[in-house]
């Protein structure tokens, strides 16, 4: 799984600008039917989080969409009138789908999905990184199809997290101190990158599940990540895995 994540993310890691990293990642995703991309790097609004304050935070890097989509009534609707994705930011989600917050088949979001359909978005797999001082780097990757295996979703979203970590590293100074993980911490996090559960890791390494959680959480804290998924992406970006 890690090799698959790296294959998706390597073009973004090799890019020298945020725009190049975004377009390189999108190119790698086109074989999956990717139809839309938006990347942003901004600071979490200090005011109440609303559609308006979220938009005003700016930081738009790249948007790859039909030429007539930005500024259209459908675009304005999903950005300003009905934006359920604010929930992902409130919860500090690092991986999610649009449909996690706007369930398909719900009458409440019928117009929402009709509006997204004008940009050939039938669902989106999203990744978000959280940094110091409220920094947020986000990826919205839209697809014409909605059916992905759990393995495909995991690889695409983890590669997306590698991209959002890269976006942060391209625009913020590198850490002054080198992160030093123990061998056990690195081994456990590497298996998280393979999509293994705590139980599976405990069997592979011959340790208790509580010990797995201990090592993974230590690594997460050292890397300054909000959860284990971001810790893996940060480890990949720092070439520690």
Helix and strand arrangement:
Elements: H1 2-14, H2 18-29, E1 34-43, H3 51-56, E2 60-64, H4 73-81, H5 86-90, E3 95-97, H6 98-101, H7 110-117, E4 123-130, E5 135-143, H8 150-171, H9 183-193, H10 198-205, H11 209-223, H12 228-237
Antiparallel strand pairs: 1-2, 1-5, 3-4, 4-5
Helix pairs in contact: 1-2, 1-8, 2-8, 4-7, 8-12, 9-11, 9-12, 10-11, 11-12
Q: What number of structural domains do the residues give? A: 2
Shape: globular
Compute the average pLDDT: 87
The strand line-up of the biggest sheet is: 2-1-5-4-3
Number of strands: 5
Our Rg estimate from Cα atoms comes to 18 Å
State the oligomer. Answer: single chain
Structural description of this entry:
A hairpin with a 4-residue loop joins strand 4 (123-130) and strand 5. The longest helix has 22 residues, at 150-171. Helix content is 51%, strand content 15%. By secondary structure, the chain is an alpha+beta fold. Helix 1 packs across helix 2 (18-29), helix 1 packs parallel to helix 8 (150-171) and helix 10 crosses helix 11 (209-223). It has a 5-stranded antiparallel beta sheet with strand order 2-1-5-4-3. The two termini are 13 Å apart.
Task: Describe the structure in brief.
With 241 residues, the chain is α+β, with helices and mostly antiparallel strands. It folds into 2 domains: 2-171, Beta-Lactamase; 183-237, Arc Repressor Mutant, subunit A (Orthogonal Bundle). The chain has helices spanning 2-14, 18-29, 51-56, 73-81, 86-90, 98-101, 110-117, 150-171, 183-193, 198-205, 209-223, 228-237; strands at residues 34-43, 60-64, 95-97, 123-130, 135-143.
